[in-house]
Design brief:
Elements (H helix, E strand, L loop, with lengths): L4 H6 L17 E11 L7 E3 L6 E13 L3 E14 L2 E6 L6 E5 L4 E15 L3 E12 L2 E14 L4 E14 L13 E17 L2 E14 L14 E15 L4 E12 L4 E13 L3 E12 L28 E14 L2 E13 L16 E12 L1
Parallel strand pairs: 2-6
Antiparallel strand pairs: 1-3, 1-19, 3-4, 4-7, 5-6, 7-8, 8-9, 9-10, 10-11, 11-12, 12-13, 13-14, 14-15, 15-16, 16-17, 17-18, 18-19
């Protein structure tokens, strides 16, 4: 069977994740193990609690297999083991006037298990898929369903992809009575997305996409001492992904941009660059750098106020503050016949000074972390 122009181009290290209109020709099994470690907070920034942050071990399994001539099945299993401390809130340090942290103890331990199954049906120039997933941890359960469709157009020079999903989450905070937390709440999410992938020439392609997500229900963080958020949230995204293959070094450049905006007032920009450089037929090195910047939510305050009515929105969650972040990564991939081995390292650093719109007061709990991942893939 003759390959379409898009298939030829994507085989040259230019694949876009959204393109899946072709049935897999063989079965593959992938196993990954990751270790995620957050850097401890400076002891001087903590008033109460531990300054240790999260350590998370992640184990992933994936099975992808063709079924008959027109179907495929994809099974994913994720297991996370986490421990450490997290910020509960902020209070003013009266000697400096800056926010200082109230942290949990370092004894927080949790486990999360997620299973997802995707069935895909392939037609001559299109495909359709259905995914069901379930995630469970000590205080949280999520159930979701997603559908997607893709169509090859313009004699295989372009692909249109659409998707929709729905999830329902149950929230059951631990130690609810001891800390006056909610005992049980729910939230729901609905998402839609569309993307267009187009071959620009024989060495480059471009994908543009947009998405919208609506969330409603309990959107506050039950573990914060004072966290009151709106009971609905509308998120919108715009994205562009550019792939360029360079024949002389036999390498590919991946350049991605994403804009995010929601009715919390958060606006963010993400710029991602990666260089895929093969060395011979068996080894590939992939360095990458990512920049992220966001503006704070309308109701974000750097220091919790216990004098504001509970009917008024407020949160000191660092994830809602203004900050910027740099991420640097390196990945090596070795291919040996039907086996593929990969080892990746990522270093992430966030800071108020990195933001396009620098905050007046930087949150003391901004993250720094390291992530190491080892993976094995076998095809047969």
């Amino acid at each position: 069977m003759k390959k379409s122009p898009l298939a030829v181009l994507t085989s040259a290290a230019l694949a876009l994740p959204a393109f899946a209109a072709t049935q897999p020709s063989e079965t593959s099994i992938s196993i990954k193990a990751s270790q995620y470690k957050e850097e401890d907070i400076a002891a001087s920034d903590v008033l109460i609690g531990a300054n240790e942050r999260y350590d998370i071990d992640v184990y992933q399994f994936q099975l992808t297999t063709p079924i008959g001539a027109d179907w495929s099945l994809d099974v994913n299993l994720n297991r996370e083991l986490m421990s450490g401390a997290s910020p509960w809130g902020t209070i003013r340090d009266f000697t400096t006037g800056e926010p200082t942290l109230i942290m949990s103890g370092a004894t927080i331990e949790d486990q999360r298990t997620e299973v997802s199954v995707t069935a895909s049906r392939y037609f001559t120039d299109s495909s359709a898929s259905v995914t069901v997933s379930h995630s469970d941890e000590d205080d949280y359960e999520a159930k979701a369903i997603a559908v997607g469709g893709e169509w090859e157009l313009m004699d295989g020079m372009a692909t249109l992809a659409v998707g929709a999903s729905y999830s329902s989450d149950d929230i059951r905070p631990t130690d609810a009575l001891s800390f006056n937390r909610v005992t049980e709440e729910e939230k729901q999410s609905r998402s839609m997305s569309v993307s267009w992938t187009h071959i620009l020439n024989r060495t480059s392609l471009l994908q543009i996409g947009t998405g919208i997500t609506e969330r409603d229900g309990y959107l506050s963080d039950p573990y914060k001492l004072r966290d009151v958020r709106p009971d609905s949230r509308l998120e919108k995204t715009l994205s562009a992904k550019y792939r360029k293959y360079f024949e002389q070094p036999n390498a590919a450049m991946h350049l991605d941009y994403r804009y995010f905006h929601d009715d919390f007032g958060i606006r963010s920009h993400t710029l991602d660059f990666a260089w895929h450089q093969p060395f011979g037929d068996r080894f590939q090195l992939i360095p990458g750098v990512r920049y992220y910047s966001q503006e704070e939510a309308d109701f974000y305050i750097p220091i919790d106020s216990f004098f504001i009515s509970l009917d008024e929105n407020q949160s000191s969650d660092f994830r809602l503050s203004s900050f910027g972040a740099w991420s640097f990564s390196i990945k090596g991939v070795v291919t040996l016949a039907d086996w593929t081995l990969d080892l990746a390292y990522e270093r992430y650093i966030s800071d108020g000074d990195y933001a396009l719109d620098e905050p007046d007061i930087e949150h003391p709990a901004l993250l720094e972390f390291e992530l190491v991942t080892f993976g094995v893939n076998y095809r047969f």
